[in-house]
Structure formats: C-alpha cells, structure tokens
Design brief:
Strand 4 and strand 5 form a beta hairpin. The protein folds into 2 domains: 73 residues, no CATH class; 120 residues, Roll (ph1033 like fold). Helix 2 crosses helix 3. By secondary structure, the protein is α+β, with helices and mostly antiparallel strands.
C-alpha cells in the first residue's frame, strides 16, 4: 500500500478525526453500495482509532474531489473558491445585531431624544457594504431583540467621535421579540451577523443563524 500514489492521502484518512457535519441525501446503484461496504469493512480493519461506513467513504471522496477541483479552478482559471464563499456569506448575512444597556435604545434607536440612529457602530468596513439592516439586543430588564431598522448608511460623527448608523425610515417592531434562550447576554457583546429572514422568523437567540 505504501507504494501507491495516494498512500499518504489514505493514511491521513485512517487517522483523521470527526468534524461537524450536515446530512444530505445521496442515491447510488447497488454495485456502488456493495463496493463501498467492502472498502469500509477493509478500512475499519486497518485503522486502530476509527471505524468506517459507506457514508464516511462518500464524505472522504467528496472532500478529495473538492480539494482537487478548487486547485484546478485556482491554477487554471484564477478562481478563488474560498473567497467566493466568503463573499456569498457576507451577502447572505445582511443584518448586524449590536447591544444596548439602559435607556440608550429608547433614546437613540427608537428616537425618543434624537433622530433614530445607532452608535457606536464597531463594524468592519469589509462588512458595511453587505449590510442592509441593523438590530440591537436590549439588556435588562427587556433582555430581548425587539426592533430592527433599514440602514441608510454609516458615517463617522466627529462630535460623537464614533461611527454612526443612520436609518432609512423609522425602526420596525419585530413580529416576535427574540429572547436569549440558552445563550448568555454576553454573547451579544460585539457585532453579530445574521439575515433579516432569520431575524423575522426567530423567537430565541438559539434559532438565529449567524455567519
């Protein structure tokens, strides 16, 4: 086996650990399933640390193909798959969630004392271009996300000495307030990115999809 060109790859597979996974459906003919089962049985007998199944072999084959495909796209066509994934992710997560304590939310976000806006906005410039909405986790006694607003733009305010998010229209109340669930309030310290769809369809922070 050590003389085979793919030996280092298979040796690595026999030692590799499990990663987080998502379930997908794959349809194969009977002959392919029989081959998978036999190879899985043989691989399991060779490994001291893990057992193999047809699913694990399919995962390995997909990973090997993707590595080679990404290499081809990068070297032959100049396409960076990882960069495209990050760009798509940034476009998909169009909503930023910041945090508030005390009366800041009512006075600023809801506009009780000034034109509705939010600050300080510690958001990277790389993220700004893909953001369309802003929301704020309100601390005690509310302990929930209750409103969001459409973003008009970000601008540095020399008087406030920070970046301010200006709204396009009035803040909008969520159909359901989003409580913490199993997350701690400290989770919302620092910017968190999600989608408006996720925000509108969640009732706890555990249900929000972040990226």
């Amino acid at each position: 086996m050590s003389e085979h060109g793919n030996a280092p790859y298979f040796d690595k597979l026999l030692r590799s650990s499990k990663a987080n996974k998502k379930q997908v459906a794959v349809y194969l003919d009977d002959a392919t399933v029989e081959r998978l089962d036999m190879v899985a049985k043989l691989f399991s007998s060779l490994s001291d640390s893990k057992s193999f199944s047809r699913n694990s072999l399919i995962e390995m084959a997909a990973e090997k193909f993707l590595d080679e495909a990404e290499g081809y796209l990068r070297e032959e066509l100049g396409v960076d798959v990882a960069a495209l994934i990050e760009e798509e992710k940034a476009n998909r997560f169009d909503t930023v969630i910041l945090s508030s304590n005390g009366r800041g939310f009512e006075e600023t976000f809801l506009g009780e004392k000034e034109q509705p806006c939010w600050y300080p906005c510690r958001i990277s410039e790389a993220r700004e271009g893909s953001l369309k909405y802003i929301s704020v986790y309100r601390g005690q006694p509310i302990s929930a996300i209750t409103h969001y607003a459409k973003i008009k733009g970000f601008r540095y305010d020399p008087d406030r000495k920070c970046k301010v998010c200006y709204f396009d229209g009035d803040p909008i109340e969520l159909p359901n307030k989003i409580v913490l669930g199993n997350k701690d309030a400290c989770y919302f310290i620092g910017a968190k990115y999600t989608s408006l769809e996720s925000l509108l369809n969640s009732t706890t922070a555990d249900e929000l999809v972040f990226g």
